[in-house]
Amino acid sequence: GRKIIDRIDTLLNTYHDSRVADVLNAEGYKTTHGKEFRNATVGHIRRTYGLKSFYDRFHEQKKYTIKEIAYKLGVSYNMVDLWIKNQIIKAHLHTGRKIYICELNPENFKKRLTSEYRAGRRPKDFYNKIMNRLNEVQLEGGFDEQGRFIHVPLGDLSQMSEYFRRVIINFFLQKKLESYI
After folding, report:
1. Claim to verify: residue 63 and residue 42 sit in the same structural domain
2. Is the pTM of the predicted complex or chain greater than 0.70?
3. Residues 85, 146: one domain?
4. Residues 65, 46: one domain?
5. Which among 79, 117, 150, 152 could disulfide-bond with 127, CB atoms 3.0 to 4.6 Å apart, if both were Cys?
6. Closest among 137, 134, 72, 70 to 100, alpha carbons compared
7. Does one domain contain both 83 and 129?
8. Are residues 86 and 65 located together in one domain of the fold?
9. Domain range enclosing 11
10. Does some domain include residue 121?
11. Is 13 helix (H, G, I), strand (E, B) or coil?
């Protein structure tokens, strides 16, 4: 009943569906059919009752994975990792999912990157590329006015900026080449 829904809602602040199922099972909860909870069961309850997912919740807090930031900015995973090590982007390890959760505030990020560039630690072409990409991401709906990440379906490639289209095409070409190696 409502007790399980409230418990799932609380657990989703910290855990993904599969881990929520594990916790519910460990606490002795059962489904209405008397079975153990599974990932799909938690997902179904979440969608039925309009509960936000683990990822939706941390996106609302301006937090993203390294892959999400790299993808939206058109840089490598390693570049975002380097920014984390240089404290340009704040991040912490989420032990439940074993992923880094990064806090990205576009305005603070721009200030830090500008500071790095002016100090001679970032080349001009790289600085310009990232600043342009940050502006594109904001125009494409990547972040709202509070700096929260907005998921936009890819849809038709012709609707994307030329830069973003090239990033996607290169990604798929690389994957195709890797399949032949």
Report:
1. no
2. no
3. yes
4. no
5. 117
6. 70
7. yes
8. yes
9. 2-51
10. yes
11. coil
CB 133 within 8 A of CB 166: no
Q: Encode pLDDT of 41-77 as tens digits.
A: 999 999 999 999 988 888 887 788 888 888 878 888 8
Same domain for 93 and 65, yes or no, is yes
CB atoms within 10 A of CB 168: 14
**Each residue's pLDDT tens digit, 97-140:** 677 888 777 777 788 888 888 888 777 888 788 877 776 665 44
CA distance 129 to 157: 21
Q: Give the closest residue to 28 by CA, choosing from 9, 50, 7, 54.
A: 7
Residues 82 and 92: their CA atoms lie apart, in Å, by: 14
Structure tokens, 48: 């039925």
**Tokens 């999912």 correspond to what residue?**
97
What letter does residue 35 receive in the DSSP assignment?
P
**HSE-up (13 A, CA, CB side) for residue 22:** 8
Tell me, yes or no, whether 41 and 65 share the same domain.
no
